[in-house]
Amino acid sequence: MPDTELTTKILKAVDDGLQEQIDYTAELVRLPSLRGQEATAQDFMARSMKERGYTVDRWKINVEDIQNLPGFSPVHISYDDAWNVVGSHRPNNAKGKSLILNGHIDVVPTGPLDMWTRPPFDSYVDGDWLYGRGAGDMKAGLAINLYAVDALRRLGYMPAGDIHFQSVVEEECTGNGALACLQRGYRADTAIITEPSGDRLGSAQVGVMWFQVKVRGRPAHVAYAGSGSNAIEACFPIIEALHGLEAEWNKDRHPMFHDEEHPINFVVSKIEGGDWTSSVPAWCTFDMRISCYPGQDLADVRRAVEETVAGASRKSSFLANNPPQIVYHGFQAEGYVLEGGEEGQDLLKSCHKTVYGEELQKRIFTGTTDARFYGLYANIPAMVYGPKSTEIHGFDERVSIESIRKVTQSVALFIADWCGLEKAA
Amino acid sequence: MPDTELTTKILKAVDDGLQEQIDYTAELVRLPSLRGQEATAQDFMARSMKERGYTVDRWKINVEDIQNLPGFSPVHISYDDAWNVVGSHRPNNAKGKSLILNGHIDVVPTGPLDMWTRPPFDSYVDGDWLYGRGAGDMKAGLAINLYAVDALRRLGYMPAGDIHFQSVVEEECTGNGALACLQRGYRADTAIITEPSGDRLGSAQVGVMWFQVKVRGRPAHVAYAGSGSNAIEACFPIIEALHGLEAEWNKDRHPMFHDEEHPINFVVSKIEGGDWTSSVPAWCTFDMRISCYPGQDLADVRRAVEETVAGASRKSSFLANNPPQIVYHGFQAEGYVLEGGEEGQDLLKSCHKTVYGEELQKRIFTGTTDARFYGLYANIPAMVYGPKSTEIHGFDERVSIESIRKVTQSVALFIADWCGLEKAA
To answer: Which of A264, A393, A396, A398 to mutate to test the interface with B (most CBs of B within 10 A)?
Structure first.
């Protein structure tokens, strides 16, 4: 920890930059970086890094480079517009430890616009809240990463260790953006991911899997609906059976998830079926997102899903002979428990306590984050630590400005100690 | 009925033209006249009528012309490509009665191509069956209408009464094509619709209604699925409740439907919902086709649907405050019982018996046909009478060639008597 005088200066330097930081975050939210459309927001990030004097590495993800690495998730979409951006600060004589400050640029779809109070990309401030799709998840975090170092620079210092500012794509569907950073060789002594953890330290996260179930039917004229097999309605008992598996896994818990209300969530999140209102539908496809515990082998998870779908299908004479097809695409993400890296964790706890005046609480995630890649596949302890946000993936997503301020202060203090400081050039 | 000698000649004249008729039908099936793409098949029909010397009336349906007429069904699509074609034979001094020979050119979608033995529009003959989407429903009928008169012409005769050959669009979704024929002034003493009735006479048909139910949800990150309200799964109990109404109506039957196995069919036939696999879906829309009995007021049917949906929705705290929206589009079709026109019915029975050697059976339709427009709104008894077909709206749709032959013979005999004959010019 920096001494008291420097600490006070750093905290104030963050405050001095806060208005600019919030304006910057709002500007970033206004760039609608939905999956497949992140390129302009990534240009913005690259410019921000270049202006600060960081070495900018911008590259398009190449599936062939990463598809055989552990943690890869299969994709059915083109990566022609999937640009990662990393800005690196490399002091001439690195004395301190190195750090990855990671965030993702992609945001999830808005859903029906009429359910938003104001247009989702028209970012605005109301009271303590900054609104907009992606405000919390996680453009506030991308800005925190940059502005924590800016506060040090404002005091005439720069970190005396390597820092890699990563702005990655694909966090919301595969994590292949973070994986591509590993493949490209980025390493550090620890990583901080400023996901909206609600001022807490992510200590464990579930595994997440996406799959599609493609169900066939036997079409017929609706006038003789009994002679057909309705592919849409055939999905209902399959979904019900999968909820049975979800209930089982919620009963039989991983110890770190004992206190969570409902750690495992199986959600049917997309559905599409049928072509014509007067035909018994011949096809229906639903998408499901499921989760599992750290340590559960994904091959076992897939087997459980397949057995469940097959079991439900055997009860239909048509589906017994025309079994649904299961396609895995998107997340094939293992669970992760933050282990090791006690030195970094202790330092973050101490920085947090200085800023908040209270102990850093643990956060157990019932979703996934890119932290798993660093921790599981590169032996880099990855601490998820970010601001308070609400309605992420929902309507009127927002992030707390006071929380942004405090997290930025904690991270700036952390950097000052972890990397050390040197006089800015 | 024509005398025995003429009858024999007419039957043979149909046989003599049969190969050409089947080739013609196959050619017509090859034109993929899906809704919105009927224009080229209608050009083909118009050419066929012109070649035969009929006056061809081809016009685009104008919604404004028909939207206030009874039997109109609301549409959400453009009619920019909705062309009707009517070819009229008008003898100089009409001595006999007049006749409408109606058929529809639109076919329903094919569904997944891999479930067809051969491509759906690659019409082919195998044994007694002519295959292809629309082969039975109802391009065979359109050809029967033309070739029945061709048989008479081959003998040197033409009908001595007006005949209007109608090739209409929109039968599969609204019936607005047939309605537009009425609006344009086409009338006759009776109508025959050569829908695939399986060599039987349509005596009653259900009413049919299409509607969409738009269900909202409260989205959230799937990690906290419990805090959201899943719009897709919210549809399931609503669909179940609608099936309850279906069961009620199947119990409490219209007398003409007593012997049908399951006259009323409520079918969820299309569904779409959700945007993102890791968001609790905020919206889901399903399409349903339902049916009702002749005499049931459609306003009462809509009320029953609305009460059922509202009742199921009240059980969800979210839907109770965010009630699903019901949108009516497509069929708003009343049921119809063939009444009156005994002279025409008796004649058709007698022609049928001559050809088939057995009595004409009644056919009760659990679907709708355009017959309702003529019978309910123009006082024209409309007889649905056509060939045997199977898998209509399904895969490997096909129509029996032997049945086509016999129906064409019956209709030719009917015309010879109903309209009378005069020497062809």
So the answer is: A393
